[in-house]
């Protein structure tokens, strides 16, 4: 973890909670995401923090790239959740639409996606984009 993301820093997912009580317990395996949105937010934070192991564990094996390489030049700047369809604690599937702002080599960009999630062995996993 970089010095700019200390345990008291706000979580990159945009919840306003400290990283140590928000996404970090998910990244460390202390608990699992209870909703598709929580998983999506924790995966965004994992991208921002370089948590490749967590991204691998939470990506459906059918669609996961091998190897999973992150772009070290991409600096994630913020996340906005636009829509959530299903994906609740009692659902088996869900979708989350979001926009994630980033900067690469000084050039700003936005990743806009509607992601599909499903439960696999009782745990939420990212499947693909719609």
UniProtKB/TrEMBL annotation:
InterPro entries: NTF2-like_dom_sf, SEC_C_motif, YchJ-like, YchJ-like_M. Residues 35-128 form the YchJ-like middle NTF2-like domain. It holds the Pfam family SEC-C. HAMAP family: UPF0225 (MF_00612). Belongs to the UPF0225 family. This is UPF0225 protein ISG29_03870. It comes from Nocardioides acrostichi.
């Amino acid at each position: 973890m970089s010095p700019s993301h200390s345990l008291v820093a706000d979580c990159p997912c945009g919840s306003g909670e400290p990283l140590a009580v928000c996404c970090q317990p998910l990244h460390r395996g202390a608990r699992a995401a209870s909703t598709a949105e929580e998983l999506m937010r924790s995966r965004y934070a994992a991208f921002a923090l370089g948590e490749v192991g967590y991204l691998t564990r939470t990506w459906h094996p059918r669609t996961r790239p091998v190897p999973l390489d992150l772009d070290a030049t991409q600096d994630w700047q913020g996340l906005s959740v636009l829509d959530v369809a299903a994906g609740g604690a009692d659902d088996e599937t869900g979708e989350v639409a979001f926009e994630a702002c980033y900067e690469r080599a000084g050039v700003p960009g936005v990743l806009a996606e509607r992601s599909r999630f499903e439960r696999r062995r009782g745990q939420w996993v990212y499947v693909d984009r719609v």
